[in-house]
Design a protein that fits this description.
Blueprint lengths: L16 H9 L1 H9 L13 H8 L11 H14 L3 H19 L1
Helix pairs in contact: 4-5
């Protein structure tokens, strides 16, 4: 069993949400998550403002019908990124809404 280094066990400080999202999607972010014992939750003081904000926000369950090829593509991309496909879809919707809002 490999022993974790200090660098692997600390979430870095981020300049903005985009930098944080990029880190979580990177190999370093995936390594951080896979090196943690399963079931162990992140502390809010771990330095992740985005994760803290998303965890604090309330989610509303909806039903959304998407074409099968879109779901398959989302699963493929999510697997490459090391995240769940529903998480990926939520990230895409969030970013798309922010982009449209800036254009308005």
């Amino acid at each position: 069993m490999r022993k974790r280094t200090e660098k692997e066990s600390v979430i870095p400080k981020f300049a903005d949400e985009q930098a944080e999202a990029d880190w979580w999607a990177s190999e370093a972010g995936r390594q951080f998550l896979t090196s943690r014992p399963s079931g162990k939750k992140l502390k809010n003081s771990a330095g992740s403002k985005l994760v803290t904000k998303l965890a604090a926000s309330q989610s509303v369950q909806i039903a959304l019908r998407l074409p099968s090829p879109d779901i398959a593509k989302a699963r493929e991309i999510a697997e490459r990124k090391g995240i769940g496909y529903q998480t990926l879809l939520k990230m895409i919707v969030h970013e798309g809404l922010r982009r449209v809002d800036r254009q308005s």
